[in-house]
Amino acid sequence: MDLLFYVVLLLIGGCFAGFMAGLLGIGGGIVITPIQYYLLTSIGCDPKTSLTVTFATGLAVICVTMINSTRKHKQNNLIVKQHLKPMMVFGFVGAILGAVISQYIDVEVLKILFGVICIVSTVFLVLIKSPTSLDNIKTDAGLFCSIAFACGLASELIGPAGGAFIIPIFVAYLRYPITNTIGTTSALSIATTLAGVICYIVLGWGVQGLPDFSLGYVNLLQFVFLTITSIIVSGYAANLSKKINPTKLKALQVIVISYIGLQMMGVFDIILSII
Length: 275
Known about the structure:
Order of helices and strands: HHHHHHHHEEHHH
Number of strands: 2
Radius of gyration: 18 Å
């Protein structure tokens, strides 16, 4: 494959990842996962290894992107600090456990389960009126930490898109306004993705058949080019999220999370097989 084409695809993928991370609080895994997988398999990498490298590298990109977007959200006063530190700790622990468990269980079953959760969550997101202030958010620390743990677990079991279901939970159940949800979950994602990256580096250390320039399962070549544009775009997108009408922002989240849910359930594959 032509090197220029390879790099351009990664830079474009980074733009989408940064945009989704900054605007919606979702890491953009649905965009960079297929791009990375296509590139790795096209250069002769084993499909199973390619998928693992894709997940690991995607988490590394999302981690760096979320750090930048969180910084912007903090400047815009959109991060709710209540229980945030313990949530990040529990999210980190959940992610480590998820990475270990993923080596021993059927991930396809979990993809369907979390796909259903995404769809159900978006239904609640549509039906329940979004809060406009922080006056009615839940205060139970145990509840927040449990949700953070589940988010970390999911992010490792089903890849970079695993944290998507937490957005509707924060809005519909914890009663966070949309803009504050995006800022706060961006901060939480730093902990969950960092844990995942560490685990994938350790688990992939010394594994044969990895593409060149890999650190464990994290491919540094793809990481660098995806991150360059994602960092730039995420900052602009984070500022944009404050300016967009909350109703429109909510509609965008419903569309994206519904797509993630249907994709994890394999609905699009079924439709394509019928066609």
